[in-house]
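Field notebook, page 362. I keep forgetting to write these up properly, so this time I am using the form the group agreed on. The chain and the ligand, zinc ion, are recorded exactly as supplied. Prediction of the bound pose follows.
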Amino acid sequence: MQLKNKSLLTIALLICSFLNAQDLTFEEYNPPSTLVVPKHIVKKAKYPFIDIHGHQYRMSEQDLSPVIAAMDTLNMGIMVNLSGRSGEILLKSVKNINDHYPNRFVVFANINFDGVGTEIWLENTVNQLEEDVKNGARGLKIYKSLGMRNKDSNGNRLAIDDNRLDAIWSKCGELGIPVLIHAADPKPFWDEFDENNERWLELKTHPRRKRSATNPVSWEQIIKEQHHMFKKHPETNFINAHMGWFANDLGKLAKLMDEMPNMHVEIGAIIAELGRQPRFAKMFFEKYKKRILFGKDSWKPNEFPTYFRVLETDDEYFPYHKKYHAFWAMYGLDLSDEVLKMVYYKNALRLIPGLDKSLFPN
Ligand SMILES: [Zn+2]
């Protein structure tokens, strides 16, 4: 009797799991690959590297030792904290760095765009930037709120190429510091939210990321303003975050690189685009090796190995860590040592003033 009950239960469970399998959603369907090919997991980068796109939001007061411990396991020589803010907080962050790990972190300053259009705003902002650089900031970071959310004192959207901001960009050139700028978001956020949208899952799980031609303006408009601003300031070095959202069209990005010799790019959050086109991406890296920098963006140490594996190995069809960025698998670019060294640290050492070169091989 007991045995009979048991087998009935087994059959019932089997039917249940079959029915559940019939109802799997796209999110749930995520089978481990059955493909068996050579594997090279890379937990630590081949060379010490500089993460040009880091965020530590509480650097003025935080204990930096756990961050250093994780950086050491990854072989990260220097983290650039883009969230340095300004004034007193920036000063405190620089002090925290200098007191504990003087050659392992640097901060970039940020700007408060509230009040653009009033007479005093520009003067105050340029003075503050100068003071922040005196106090130790090594660059300026511009968030995507410029071009999207920031408004001038009349309540109008502030365009990235607004003339009233020109003095800031030229000041950075004068001071010899780079400007790392993130503009807009991936283009699919502006596209129809339907079965043809590659970021469908991201828009489903993060519906507030959806944009339209009037919210606030088209993607093309924001990107055009950014490029126009780069062109207006050839004496200033710009680092376009996330490859300027052209990592999925490297032919187009190559044209832009040729048009704007003062534009550099970093690879934060777009490694999945590179990992699906290993041969074309490798050619791009070889051609523009002096203008590509390593960046990661969100501070999740366990996600870095995907970056190392894509850049360093020739592995085939391995998983990426976030399905809403990429439901496809990765392939390694197998970059040469020469290119790796440029991307990992040489370009950053050249663009950012005052980094400790002794942490890196020649
Ligand atoms: Zn960022």
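OBSERVATIONS:
- Residues 53, 55, 82, 182, 297 surround zinc ion (CB under 6 Å).
- DSSP finds twelve helices and eight strands in the chain.
FOLLOW-UP: compare against the apo run.
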